[in-house]
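Fold this sequence, please.
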Amino acid sequence: MGPDYLDTASEFLHATRLEDVSQEAREHARWVIADCIPVIGVGMQMPAMRALVEAQLAKAGQGEAWVIGSGRRAAAMDAALLNGTAGVWLELDEGNLHAKGHPGIQVVPAALAVAQDIGASGADLLLAVLLGYEISARISRAAKVRTEIHPHGTYGVLGAAVAVGKLQGFTARQFRELLNISATMGMATSRNTLLEGATVRNIYAGHSGFMGQMAARLTQAGFTGEADGVRSIFGKVLSDSFDPAQVVDGLGRDWLITQGYFKMHCTGRYVHSAIDALEDAQHQAGSLGIDPRRIERIDVRAYRMAAMLSGRHIRSSFGARFSIPFALATLLHHGRSDLSAFSEEAVANPAVQSLAARVFVTEEPSYTEAYPDLQLCDVDIFMDNGARMSGHCKVTRGERTNPHAPSELQAKFFALGRSIWDEPEVQTLYDACMGLERIDDFRAFSAPLSLARSANVLKKNQSQHAEVS
């Protein structure tokens, strides 16, 4: 009999150096970190997030870690909690279909905060994110977690814990204990929160960063976990099936982080398949275009996870991000898919609501069978003159086999960054993310950067709003 899967994983986590990681995986990890920072910063501007920052930091301890977009600093655990929560608010963060969720935003906030706290190098930060992402994504892949459970706040606790353990130099024995402890520190999460547009769902990712650090602290203090807490939680509590071989097969050779995707639309991932199909239909229509005022009905056929996002009666901006009918309606009405198309004003628009009510989403079983390797989706648009326009998605944009170009990822970084920070700060952040290995001390690097919302940007936005009004 070969070594226990937890022993194999723990030895790997302890022994792996950055030079052992493939160039492709390192490059993807840089983009994961880069993707998170401005997404967090913009998410931190939400009124509820600003209120949470004030409440959380009112009596919190001092620290070196950014609360990104607030201009505040905090102890690492508080910073990770707030940054992780803000990072999922806009639904623009990186994800991974094979990991069944969003590993990056659950790992990066904890790794970033601890790297600032202890003055770790950029190379150490990059490796910590890689390993935390990899092992937690593999554990999630190995389990058939119930659909009713939201993936945030579950396996992400392990990912954050591993990243912290790597930064703090854990031994293989400590890593095994850490995996067993952190596995039991996830939340009882509900997927229905996103279907109802309940923003409590956003704290799940923040929980991962906070409790991952606590798990590392418990391990260092001498606490113990079950003999196999990972199998207990992911094979009995969250799921009835867990395959340990999927945790370690190809470990160190096949990097799951390279299978991740990046988003360009601020919606739940499964909505993107329908958006891609709509864009295909618009392309087929050519110069004639599709007049939303003349649409009688839109039919969408998709795989199960997409078909679940079928709500037509949307009442909030956050809820709008998890509705295929609303997404198609607002894109057709506004002719764009930026943040404003999912704002409270867009939700209140009667023309958008009327069109959303005429979008019908159903599951196509054969498409569900093909998922996650393919994300098949059809959109059929029926016009009042009898015309029918159709579009199809096979692989959603941003996936490994249909990737966004680096220039697109860069454009996203700068577009989001410039909406809250001045150009020099955005450029400094971007250069740092692309050259992490050149940073000797991340605390020293981050010291001059406040990451507060720029007064210049705020003034510019107010001026533009006044001109439009």
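Confidence is low (pLDDT under 50) at residues 463-469. The chain has two domains: 5-259, 269-393.
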